Amino acid sequence: MKKIIRNTCLIFALFLYASCKKDPAPVPVTPPPVTPPVTPGTTVNYLQQAKETHTFTVNNLLTASYGYRANTTTHSNNCYEWYNVSQIYADAAMVSLGETTYLAYMNNTFKFMENMWDKRDLRGGYFASVNLDGSGAAGDKYVDDNALTGIVFLEAAEVTTGADKQAYLAKAKACGDWLINSGLWDNVYGGGFYWNTAKPEKPTQTNGLALQLFLKLYSLTGDAIYRDWAVQVNTWLNTKMFDTNTGLYIWKIDGAGDGVKHNEKFTYDNAIMVEAFILYSKIMNDAAYLTKAQSLGRAMNNTLWNALYKGYVFNTAETRINPAWCAWGSQAMIRLYETDKNESWLVYAKENINRLNIANRNTTNFGYYFFAGFDGQNRSTEMETVDQAWMQRIQALLSKY
């Protein structure tokens, strides 16, 4: 999973592949007219917006092989693992609402994903990228991508039956088993999973997603190995990555020796941890973790919320917002609301999506720009599949409320 962060010289870097390589920052374009802000009391038809987003995705990003090209511009000939599974995640949310026409999209993309599975290594694991026809799978494998893939497949299994259900469950378990056997956990920095097979760093989001997958697999199978890995990952995250001053989790550790801690705070890192703690509280029967999830949610809203524009920042060093990474904050708030029924969480979830619709949505074709300012200016040229997927998904989830 890629992250972009601005250094003190205001130089930006974007990743060439979905998770690993860098190229110049996107060139801002003059946006179409900004959608008027939603006024108090206005009812938003989130389900309709989710459907409009899906239509854009199908018309502009879906390939004949039922994979999704990375974007419409710079990487239109690449399919990325976490982009494709994010679209499956989005379609699973629609199916859960009774929108059964999305089932075929979901299942066909699942079949396309087999092109990314490493069939030359008995441990398996998904590669990060392939060509549009599914060829060319090679290179590094990413812990966060594979963990998210397992999480997505478990949700897809919930909305399918028969052989399809069993196939999703089997592949989700294979993702978890790859994590365990990948050799990407060691004692450097006291433990933790590396981001990928090149072992450059150990990030919060990588380990937070692994924690979620292990918890879900333990709940599903009862196998102690998944419980033990969940406990191990959770202990490392809370020992090494938690910042007591802000009540939030930091970005990553890298470098020689004890490593350098990068203390920037990202919305989606902390959203992932909120969801992980909710799962931990339920699956491990530990009420203290619901309290931790609620405290982390409040810390997000204290530090990562832009009160002027009513939306989550990408990170504490950024002035732009992104539909996937910032929308993840809404998913965390929805999960908190579903758990404790405190409606204030839902307010944050909705306002954040409303802001992304104002800032990043093209009002003509209903696609979402990769980055934009909170005010809708300085939009990047790219329209990434992953951004469409997350906006479709979160608006589908919000349509229930």
Automatic annotation (TrEMBL):
N-terminal signal peptide: 1-18
Stretches assigned to coiled coil: none
SUPFAM superfamilies the record matches: Six-hairpin glycosidases
Gene3D superfamilies: 1.50.10.20
GO biological process, one term: carbohydrate metabolic process
PANTHER family: MEIOTICALLY UP-REGULATED GENE 191 PROTEIN
Listed name of the protein: Glycosyl hydrolase family 76
Organism: Pedobacter endophyticus
Taxonomic placement: Bacteria, Pseudomonadati, Bacteroidota, Sphingobacteriia, Sphingobacteriales
